[in-house]
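User: Reviewer 2 asked us to show a designed sequence for the structure in our supplementary figure. I'm pasting the structure tokens here. Could you produce the per-position amino acids so we can include them in the response letter?
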């Protein structure tokens, strides 16, 4: 579609090779001086441009989980940590990739990715938070930019080549250096050592953030220890342990650092276990029978206040297999116990729509929206229920507000496209689909669709002016995207 620059090609490579900035490297008590904030290499604004470009490419190539309920959960958890982190200079975006491998990674511009497999191994919210806090520290301490600065001091490599290669090198040093040595004879061992130093610093800042945010700091060494033990004799290791091994001294150092903080008892999080159950039911890549077995075994071991999570997961399995008679009593009981819980509201909405009773979903969500009129989970479900009743004009109004407030969510644009198709409004359908192409870095297609919409609109109308203005914006964004070379 367009000529890809060397840096963007490297970014594509990174998406296909699993790029964790792994949470598994432990602290050291005495950390080295790793340098400045890398202002001589990249500005914060440049980092955000690279991050935005990479995120758009990921949307086009990686199995990103576009689940409003899970997105709301990890976004809430992530921003609780960010609010307690030091040196925050960029906004943060948290998202999930459907992959059973234990993994997480950070990249330019405050983007933090979590693999769904991470939820299957993190037993508590604090353990998940320890991974996220570590990745947040990579961003706040600008480790990627600082790695570029270090490489630029050693070799005449271009910033574009480094930007692409180091996205991979931060997690997989050998692979990242392979990309770099295509243009320079840099020193591999030096890059690996520098990355390890970054990991030590990320552990130190991460555990401090964990404590200030009210989580259990012992969760970090506990998670590390369990992973090391689980895969001690494995012939096939998860990518995170291949690129970031867990020798005992790293675990010991992390444990020592955690012991410098006051002990804190943290109650189990129902929302975490609901999210975990949702992943098991829908995103773990296992058959329904295996998911039900996991949930049933989990319910037997769960405390009474955590059992609803396993029941919820079981209801999702039934719902997704169209066993509505089994899903209905579970979801109705859970809703009666907590009518404001958005995990339950989302699932019950889907149930009512599947039962051909979307009006019940609309009434339930209308009530919930009175308390939280801008909540994305409620809004997207409300629009979906209106769409199921062919209340197209009302659905479109809700979705226009939703996409304005949540412009990065492909779900909203997809539903807006569907609603306009049903209403026979081809130009607005084209505009909505153009936004999806733009989110996936397919600029030419996005511009083409908006151009078609403009040609359909009445000459001189406000609609045509809006389409033309958006075309101008997309051209600027495309040129900026292609200029990252």
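Assistant: Here is a per-position design you can include in the supplement:
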């Amino acid at each position: 579609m367009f000529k890809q620059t060397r840096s963007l090609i490297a970014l594509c490579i990174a998406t296909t090779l699993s790029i964790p900035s792994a949470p598994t490297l432990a602290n050291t008590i005495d950390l080295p001086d790793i340098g400045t904030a890398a202002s001589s290499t990249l500005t914060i604004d440049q980092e955000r441009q690279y991050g935005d470009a990479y995120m758009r490419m990921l949307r086009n190539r990686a199995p990103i989980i576009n689940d409003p309920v899970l997105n709301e959960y990890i976004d809430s958890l992530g921003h609780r940590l960010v609010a307690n982190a030091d040196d925050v200079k960029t906004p943060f975006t948290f998202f999930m990739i459907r992959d059973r491998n234990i993994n997480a990674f950070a990249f330019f511009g405050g983007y933090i990715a979590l693999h769904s497999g991470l939820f299957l191994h993190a037993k508590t919210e604090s353990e998940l938070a320890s991974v996220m806090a570590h990745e947040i520290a990579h961003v706040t301490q600008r480790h990627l930019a600082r790695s570029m600065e270090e490489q630029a001091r050693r070799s005449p490599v271009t910033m574009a080549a480094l930007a692409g290669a180091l996205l991979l090198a931060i997690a997989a040093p050998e692979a990242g250096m392979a990309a770099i040595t295509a243009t320079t004879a840099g020193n591999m061992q030096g890059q690996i050592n520098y990355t390890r130093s970054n990991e030590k610093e990320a552990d130190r800042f991460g555990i401090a953030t964990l404590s200030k945010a009210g989580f259990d700091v012992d969760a970090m060494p506990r998670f590390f220890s369990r992973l090391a033990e689980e895969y001690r004799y494995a012939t096939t290791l998860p990518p995170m342990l291949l690129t970031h091994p867990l020798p005992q001294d790293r675990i010991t150092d992390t444990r020592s650092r955690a012991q410098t903080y006051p002990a804190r008892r943290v109650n189990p999080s129902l929302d975490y276990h609901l999210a975990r159950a949702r992943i098991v039911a829908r995103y773990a890549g296992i058959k329904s029978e295996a998911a039900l077995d996991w949930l049933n075994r989990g319910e037997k071991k769960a405390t009474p206040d955590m059992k609803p999570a396993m029941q919820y997961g079981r209801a999702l399995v039934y719902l997704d297999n169209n066993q509505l008679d089994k899903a209905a009593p579970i979801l109705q009981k859970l809703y009666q116990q907590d009518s404001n819980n958005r995990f339950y509201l989302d699932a019950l909405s889907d149930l009512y729509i599947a039962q051909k009773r979307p009006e019940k979903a609309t009434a339930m969500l209308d009530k919930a929206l009175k308390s939280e009129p801008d909540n994305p989970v409620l809004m997207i479900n409300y629009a979906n229920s209106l769409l199921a009743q062919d209340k197209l004009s009302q659905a479109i109004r809700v979705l226009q507000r939703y996409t304005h407030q949540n412009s990065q969510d492909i779900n909203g644009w997809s539903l807006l496209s569907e609603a306009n198709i049903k209403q026979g409004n081809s130009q607005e359908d084209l505009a909505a689909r153009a936004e999806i192409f733009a989110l996936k870095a397919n600029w030419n297609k996005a511009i083409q669709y908006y151009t078609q919409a403009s040609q359909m609109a009445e000459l001189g109308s406000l609609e045509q002016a809006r389409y033309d203005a958006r075309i101008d914006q997309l051209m600027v964004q495309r040129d900026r995207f292609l200029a990252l070379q």
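For the response letter, you might also mention the following. Residues 1-39, 167-194 have pLDDT under 50 and may be disordered. The first strand starts at residue 93 and ends at 97.
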